[in-house]
Amino acid sequence: MPDAARHDLLLIRHAPALTGGCMAGRRDVPADLGDRAALPAVRRMIGPVGRIIASPARRCIETAQALFDLAEVEADPRLWEQDFGAWEGLPYADLPDLGPLSGAQLAVHRPPDGESFADLCARTLPALEALIEPCGPVAIVAHAGTVRAGLAMALGDVAAALRFSVEPLSLTRLCRAGEGWAVLGVNQTAQAGVA
After folding, report:
1. Handedness of CA 26, 92, 65, 185 (dihedral sign)
2. Are 80 and 143 in contact (CB under 8 A)?
């Protein structure tokens, strides 16, 4: 594929969030940037970028600043994590067991006063499409839900995207050439390195 027609999205999940053992979602919690060896390793995996954008969440801004040595980071509110509504701030042990739901059911399941993963995709996918630029790879520092939304876009399947693990401070690479998407790598971490 000619380089001029290729557009890369580098989706980076924020560093571990300091949640106090509770659901974060839209809560604005800081990132744990204590693993100083992981940051330069992930930065090397990312390589050169043409633009850097983050979710406005503190954990994403802090991660982007640390990864790219920036004082200011461009933020896009469409990249926020899923709104877990009444589940926000609950201890993980108190969350309902959704294991019996199928992937399709899980994708449309809304927590009380929150949004479903399908809702998140509807909000996020236009942003991901709009952020594709000819200036080179675009790095997006956001959340596990945002990364999975990117995978849903590439796969054309919202439910299938929920099957992917997205670790903190991991890199997922997507590439578009023309109208088609390719998944170049998922959940690449400093510990695992680049395959």
Report:
1. negative
2. yes
- CA 56, distance to chain mean position in Å, is 12
What's the one-letter identity of residue 158? V
DSSP string covering 102-168: -HHHHHH---TTS--HHHHHHHHHHHHHHT--TTS-EEEEE-HHHHHHHHHHHHT-HHHHTT----T
CATH of 3-92+107-188, one of 3.90.1150.10, 3.40.50.1240, 3.40.630.30, 3.40.50.720: 3.40.50.1240
Q: Over its length of 195 residues, how does the chain's per-residue pLDDT go in tens digits? A: 345 578 899 999 999 999 999 999 999 999 999 998 999 999 999 999 999 999 999 999 999 999 999 999 999 999 999 999 999 999 999 999 998 899 999 999 999 999 999 999 999 999 998 888 767 799 999 999 999 999 999 999 999 999 999 999 999 999 987 778 999 999 999 875 443
Nearest to 46 by CA among 66, 73, 76, 71: 66
**Residues contacting residue 122 through CB under 8 Å, at least 6 positions apart:** none
Residue boundaries of the structural domains of the chain: 3-92+107-188
